[in-house]
Specification:
The chain is an alpha/beta fold and about 675 residues long. The protein is built from 25 helices and 20 strands. Strand 11, helix 14 (about 325-350) and strand 12 (about 365-370) form a beta-alpha-beta unit. Helix 18 (about 450-460) packs across helix 25, helix 20 (about 495-510) packs parallel to helix 21 and helix 21 runs parallel beside helix 22. The longest helix is centred in the middle third of the chain and has 29 residues, at about 325-350. It starts with 6 loop residues before the first helix and ends in a 10-residue tail after the last strand. The mean pLDDT is about 95. It binds zinc ion.
C-alpha cells in the first residue's frame, strides 16, 4: 500500500482552509482523513474515524483543550472542518475513572461538551480517541489487517507481525468499555505506534497528521505482505451447471424471494432493491464447495452487521432454462434465512431482557454461485453500500482463509452491535416514502407526461427507469431526477428492443413493480379515406407498444411473485372520438380494453391494471404551435382553448403524473380509468 501524501496538496489544503480561519493542524487533519477515506481497502461507508487534540477558543473566546473528532453523518472521503466537531477534552478524559457509563449518558456528555451546540454528534468511538494521548489518532477497518486478525489465533499473528510496535486489544464491542481497555493496553505499551483491535481494525498515532497517516500505511502494508506468505489455495470449486441462467432472469426471482408480505395491509409487501457485483475473486468465493461454511462464519468487522446482516443468503447455482426449479430452491432458501434470523433475534433478545425491536428478517447480501453476489437495500443507494461491504468481506475472508481460517466475533457480539442504539442511529429514522423499495419503468419517459410521472414516482421513493426511443433525451431527464434514476433506449414498436430494455432494468434494480406505459403518438385522417398504412403504424405504437411493454413487465412481476401495477396512458379519444382522429382513437380504444383484459387475467396474481385518460396537455403530442393554430381556428384565446373544460382549468403533465402516482399506491383498485381532463362530460366513463 502506497502513501498518497503529496506535500503540495497538503500545503494547498492548509492555504485554502487558512483563508477561512482554520488552523494548520485541523487543515492537515482534514487532508489525511480524506486520503484514508478515499481508499476502499482502508475505509468504507463510515467504517473509520480520525481525531486531533488541539487548543481552540470556545464560543466566549476562552482557549480550551479540545478533541476534534469525526462527526457522525460525515463521509471521511469528503470531510470538511465542520465534520470534525470540537469537544472539550478534560471532561471526556475524566470519564476514564468511571467503572461504567451507559450509552445514553456517553452521548449526552459528549454533546454537552461540544464547543458548538449545533455540531453533529461525535463518533461512537470518541472516548477511545480521547483516552489516548497522541495528538493525531487515525482509525480504519483495513481489509488486510482484518484478514490477519479475524483468525482463532489473530492476537498471536498480530503480536508476531508487529513485534511490540503495536499494542493488541482483545475484542470488546465499541463504546465505553472498549475505550477503557484500549487506554489500558496503551498504558502498558507506551512506545506503541498504534493499536490492533482483534476482529475489529487498527489505530495509529502521530505527533503530526503525516506521521499518523504514514504509520497507518506502513502497518497495513506489513499486514498485506504477511498475507502473501505461506498461502494455501482457496477455494476448491463446486460443480456448476453447464450454462448459467442470465442475470436478468435471476434478479426477479431472488428479489421476490427476499421480500416480505405486509401482514397489516393486504396486497402490500416490503421489497428491496438489488445491486449486482462480480469479479474473479467473487466468483472464486461464491463457487467454492465450502461456501456454506466460510460465508456463514460472521462479519469481518462489527459495524458491517448494520448494512449486511451477519450472514449472506446462499442460493443454488441457477441453471439456464430451469427457472422453475431455481425459483423453488431460492424461495425455500430465503424462507429458511428469514426463519433463522427470527430465531437469532428471539434468542438474543431474551438475553437482553426482551427490550429490542426486531429489524426485518430479509437478507442484505445474496451469493449466487456461477454469477456473483447481490447487495440488497431499501434503496439503490443502500443496496450499493451492502454490495461494497460484501465485496470487502469476500476479499477479507479469502485472504484470511489463505493464511489460516476465518473466524468472526460471537453471535452475541454481533447481535449487540446490530441492535446497539448508537449503530441504529446511523441509519436514521423517520417515516419511509410510500414507494420505497419499488422499481418503476416509464416508457416515453423523455416526453412531458413521462418525465413528470418519473419525477413524481421518484419523489414518492421509487427507483425509476426512464425508457425512451430518444436515449439522450431520456438521459438528460434521468440526470435531472438524480439519485439512481437510469435511462434506457427502448422502441416499443420493436419486440427485441422492449425485451432488451426490460432485461437492462432487471439487471440494474433486480426487477419491476410499476409500469407506466406512456409512449404514444398521434396520427390523423378521416377514417373512410385514411391510408391503411397510417392506421397500422398507429396500432403498432398506440396498441402493440402497450401490449409489448405490459407483457415484458408481467413476466418479471410473475417471477417476483409480489404483484405489481400496470398503468396505461390511454386518452379521452378511447371513449370520445374527435373528428379525423380515428387513427389515434382506434388503437387507444383497444388499449383501454387491454387494460381490462390485464385486470381480469392477472388480478389473481396481485397485478393491478389501470388507465389514465388525459386531455389537452402541453406535450410532444400537443405542441405550442398546435395550440396556437387550433385556438385561432376556433376563435379562442390559447388560455380559453386549453381550459375549455367544465372546471375551466388548464390540465398539466404534473396533474397526469399525480393520477399515475395514485394508481401506483391504490392497492385495492384495478380495471379503473381515472380521467384527468378538467371535466368533459362527453368523455365521461359510463
Ligand atoms: Zn471501528
Amino acid at each position: 500500500m502506497q502513501s498518497r501524501w503529496v506535500d503540495a496538496d497538503a500545503e494547498a489544503t492548509v492555504a485554502r482552509y487558512g483563508r477561512e480561519g482554520v488552523g494548520r493542524d485541523l487543515a492537515l487533519r482534514v487532508y489525511t482523513t480524506r486520503l484514508l477515506g478515499r481508499d476502499p481497502k482502508l475505509v468504507l461507508h463510515g467504517g473509520g474515524n480520525t481525531s486531533l487534540k488541539a487548543r481552540m477558543p470556545d464560543l466566549l473566546g476562552s482557549e480550551v483543550d479540545v478533541l476534534c473528532v469525526k462527526g457522525s453523518g460525515w463521509d471521511m472521503a469528503n470531510i470538511e472542518p465542520p465534520g470534525l466537531p470540537a469537544v472539550r477534552l478534560e471532561p471526556l478524559r475524566a470519564l476514564r475513572a468511571r467503572e461504567a457509563l451507559s450509552d445514553e449518558d456517553m452521548v449526552r456528555i459528549q454533546r454537552a461538551n461540544l464547543l458548538d451546540p449545533m455540531a453533529p454528534n461525535p463518533s461512537v468511538e470518541t472516548l477511545l480517541h480521547a483516552f489516548l494521548p497522541a495528538r493525531f489518532v487515525d482509525h480504519t477497518h483495513a481489509t488486510a489487517v482484518l484478514s490477519l486478525v479475524d483468525q482463532p489465533d489473530g492476537v498471536a499473528l498480530a503480536a508476531d507481525l508487529y513485534n511490540a510496535r503495536m499494542g493488541i486489544v482483545p475484542y470488546i464491542m465499541p463504546g465505553f468499555a472498549l475505550a477503557k481497555k484500549a487506554a489500558d493496553v496503551f498504558a502498558s505499551t507506551p512506545d506503541a505506534e498504534g493499536l490492533i483491535l482483534h476482529k475489529h481494525g487498527i489505530f495509529t498515532f502521530g505527533e503530526t497528521a503525516r506521521e499518523a497517516y504514514e504509520r497507518m500505511i506502513e502497518m497495513v502494508t506489513l499486514a498485506e505482505e504477511r498475507l502473501k506468505r505461506n498461502r494455501k489455495t482457496v477455494f476448491a470449486s463446486t460443480q456448476l451447471p453447464q450454462r448459467v441462467a442470465p442475470l436478468a432472469a435471476v434478479g426477479p426471482i431472488v428479489r421476490g424471494a427476499c421480500s416480505l408480505r405486509n401482514d397489516k395491509v393486504e396486497g402490500d409487501a416490503r421489497r428491496l432493491i438489488l445491486e449486482f457485483r462480480t469479479s474473479e475473486t467473487i466468483l472464486n468465493f461464491v463457487n467454492g464447495a465450502e461456501v456454506g461454511r466460510y460465508s456463514q462464519a460472521g462479519v469481518v468487522t462489527p459495524d458491517h452487521t448494520l448494512r449486511t446482516k451477519n450472514w449472506p443468503l446462499v442460493v443454488p447455482a441457477p441453471a439456464d432454462g430451469k427457472s422453475a426449479d431455481f425459483k423453488r430452491d431460492v424461495v425455500s432458501a430465503a424462507t429458511a434465512f428469514k426463519d433463522a434470523y427470527r430465531a437469532y433475534f428471539a434468542r438474543n433478545n431474551t438475553r437482553c431482557n426482551g427490550i429490542k425491536k426486531a429489524l426485518d428478517p430479509l437478507p442484505r447480501v445474496v451469493l449466487v454461485p456461477g454469477l456473483g453476489l447481490y447487495g440488497l437495500g431499501r434503496s439503490k443507494k443502500d443496496a450499493k453500500i451492502a454490495a461494497d461491504l460484501a465485496q470487502a468481506a469476500v476479499e477479507t475472508i479469502t485472504d484470511a482463509e489463505a493464511i489460516g481460517r476465518f473466524e468472526s466475533i460471537t453471535e452475541a457480539d454481533m447481535f449487540d452491535c446490530e441492535y446497539w442504539s448508537l449503530e441504529q442511529a446511523k441509519l436514521g429514522s423517520g417515516a419511509e416514502k410510500p414507494l420505497a423499495g419499488q422499481v418503476a419503468v416509464i416508457t416515453g419517459a423523455a416526453g412531458a407526461i413521462g418525465t413528470a410521472t418519473a419525477k413524481a414516482l421518484a419523489a414518492a421513493g421509487a427507483e425509476v427507469a426512464l425508457l425512451d426511443v430518444n436515449e439522450s433525451a431520456a438521459q438528460d431527464k434521468a440526470k435531472m431526477i438524480g439519485g439512481a434514476a437510469i435511462a434506457v433506449r427502448c422502441d416499443v414498436t420493436d419486440q427485441a428492443s422492449v425485451s432488451a430494455a426490460f432485461a437492462d432494468v432487471a439487471e440494474a434494480f433486480g426487477g419491476v413493480d410499476i409500469l407506466v406505459s406512456n409512449a404514444g403518438a398521434a396520427w390523423q385522417g378521416r377514417i373512410g379515406e385514411v391510408d391503411e398504412e397510417i392506421l397500422r403504424r398507429s396500432f403498432e405504437l398506440n396498441f402493440y407498444g402497450h401490449q409489448r411493454a405490459a407483457q415484458a413487465a408481467v413476466q418479471i412481476m410473475l417471477a417476483q411473485g409480489t404483484g405489481g401495477a400496470l398503468l396505461f396512458n390511454v386518452s379521452k379519444q378511447a371513449v370520445n372520438p374527435g373528428p379525423n382522429f380515428g387513427p389515434y382513437g382506434l388503437p387507444k380504444a383497444t388499449t383501454l380494453f387491454l387494460v381490462r383484459q390485464y385486470a381480469v387475467d392477472y388480478g389473481p396474481d396481485g397485478i393491478r391494471a389501470n388507465a389514465v385518460n388525459a386531455d389537452r396537455i402541453r406535450s410532444g403530442l400537443l405542441t405550442d404551435e398546435m395550440i396556437a393554430s387550433r385556438s385561432r381556428a376556433r376563435g379562442l384565446s390559447e388560455r380559453d382553448y386549453m381550459s375549455g373544460n367544465l372546471l375551466g382549468r388548464e390540465v398539466t403533465a404534473d396533474d397526469v403524473a399525480q393520477a399515475f402516482l395514485h394508481h401506483a399506491v391504490a392497492l385495492k383498485t384495478t380495471g379503473d380509468v381515472t380521467t384527468v381532463d378538467g371535466g368533459n362530460i362527453a368523455a365521461a366513463m359510463r
